[in-house]
UniProtKB/TrEMBL annotation:
Keywords of this entry: Cell membrane, Disulfide bond, Glycoprotein, Immunoglobulin domain, Membrane, Receptor, Signal, Transmembrane, Transmembrane helix
Protein name from the UniProt record: Ig-like domain-containing protein
Localization annotation: Cell membrane
Disordered: annotated segments: 350-388
Major location category of this protein: membrane
Length: 388
């Protein structure tokens, strides 16, 4: 912003001498900034300076000091001369915080031992574009026509300024790598134009894997900040910010996300993610390149998918677990029952076929031994899955 302002300020005023004897200057002042209205005279002795605009008194200087009790309220506390310059014949007026009502023809009248001298300054006030924002909103009111025809409205605000809003309906079809929408604003007196762009796309990654979420500024940028934010359904949280002026990166997802600074400086702000997890990293990633007079936003919907094989294994193993526990319990129960019957039979000592019961017991033993070891193997697998 500061850089942009300096540029406009450099447009300064163009001196021009009118047809007649009275010199006249044209000054373009910038809204809410300070402005100098030039006035020069041939110095000689005691000097009285009288700045007026039509019938309004803007500033009076007499006998070495300012006389402001007659000053018009509109200029109150906003004017000053350069006292140390007056002896050199410089009666220029400084006007602070210019507003659109400051426009007009100012008269600088100087009286000294050379007599009366007068000078006119035509003041124009311009308001350069302050900001440009591009955003996605839901339709409110009548929808703008299709086929990429924007509807543009100018709205007057207080202070004689206005804001401009232009709406465009998004294209219905959405290719996976998205469309880029541009909004450009040129003002009649400004040589540079402002531009905002927006892109939406979709990507998918795999659980446990790595993914690069691309983001490219459409034109090379200077003095920008790059911000990556992430949101699920909730408010976006900042992941990472890179400032091209300081070269400083602050990263809240350190170890998980990074941007290559050299690539970023040449407009490639792609985010490299690793150790992806479905539940933590599925959501919308927003890349925000913000430079003076230029902004680029890129929304990427990222879906981290769990591999089909992983899912069936995880689901299957938890099933097996339950069966294994049930079988083990059943086996124990049968073994206990058999043991109990056997003891009872031995005690009564009356002949029942011992072979059959022993077979049952062996089968139960096999189950008892086999299944728990298998299920502990599965447990290990499951933990391994979860930690990847
Ligand atoms: C200017 O100041 C001098 C001495 O300080 C005084 O004699 C004179 O009247 C003053 N002139 C005006 C216009 O106030
Ligand atoms: C008068 O002085 C001011 C303050 O030093 C300076 O900015 C301005 O350019 C000077 N004007 C002229 C015409 O010399
Ligand atoms: C706005 O300015 C840019 C660059 O100065 C130029 O390329 C573009 O054509 C202009 N657009 C309009 C609508 O004047
Ligand atoms: C970037 O900032 C530097 C230093 O403030 C300035 O000299 C340069 O003109 C700026 N570039 C742009 C494109 O604003
Ligand atoms: C983009 O970043 C700029 C500067 O940090 C900020 O002012 C702006 O609000 C951000 N825009 C969005 C949509 O997050
Ligand atoms: C993510 O992808 C899976 C499989 O392709 C799909 O079933 C799911 O609906 C997707 N989720 C989102 C939020 O797009």
């Amino acid at each position: 912003m500061a850089a942009a302002r300096t540029l406009i300020c450099a447009l300064v005023w163009i001196l021009s001498v009118a047809e007649g004897k009275v010199p006249e200057a044209r000054v373009t002042c910038l809204f809410s900034e300070d402005c100098v209205l030039p006035c020069t005279f041939k110095p000689a002795g005691q000097t009285a300076i009288h700045w007026t605009r039509q019938e309004f008194l803007v500033h009076d200087f007499l006998n070495g000091s300012d006389w402001l009790d007659q000053q018009h309220a509109h200029y109150s506390a906003r004017t000053s001369l350069f006292p140390e310059q007056i002896a050199n014949g410089n009666a220029s007026l400084q006007l602070r915080m210019c507003n659109t009502q400051d426009r007009g023809r100012y008269r600088c009248h100087v009286t000294n031992e050379n007599g009366n001298q007068e000078y006119f300054v035509i003041v124009k006030v311009e308001a350069p574009i302050r900001t440009l924002a591009l955003e996605l909103t839901r339709l409110s009111g009548p929808p703008p026509p299709d086929s990429l025809k924007p509807t543009t409205r100018k709205m007057a605000t207080q202070n004689g300024l206005y804001s401009v809003e232009s709406k465009l309906r998004k294209l219905p079809a959405k290719p996976s790598d998205g469309y880029t929408y541009f909004c450009t604003v040129n003002s009649s007196y400004d040589t540079e134009s402002w531009r905002a762009s927006l892109r939406e796309k979709e990507l998918s990654g795999e659980e446990g894997g790595a993914l690069t979420v691309p983001c490219h500024a459409p034109t090379p940028l200077e003095n920008f900040t790059l911000t990556w934010a992430f949101s699920r359904a909730d408010e976006p949280e900042d992941i990472l910010t890179f400032d091209s002026r300081t070269g400083h990166t602050s990263n809240r997802w350190a170890g998980l996300a990074r941007v290559d600074q050299n690539h970023a400086l040449s407009g490639d702000g792609s985010l490299h993610l690793q150790n992806l997890r479905n539940k933590d990293h599925t959501g919308t990633y927003t890349c925000n390149f913000s430079a003076p007079r230029s902004r680029h936003l890129e929304h990427t919907c990222v879906n981290i998918t769990v591999l089909a094989a992983d899912r069936s294994l995880t689901a299957g193993s938890s099933w097996l677990w339950v069966i294994a526990i049930l079988l083990a319990a059943l086996a124990l129960f049968i073994a206990a029952l058999v043991l109990f019957r056997k003891m009872k039979a031995e005690r009564s000592a009356v002949g029942k076929p011992a072979e059959a019961t022993e077979m049952q017991a062996v089968q139960a033993d096999e189950r008892e031994n086999g299944i728990p070891s298998e299920s502990s193997h599965l447990t290990k697998d499951q933990t391994a899955n979860e930690s990847t």
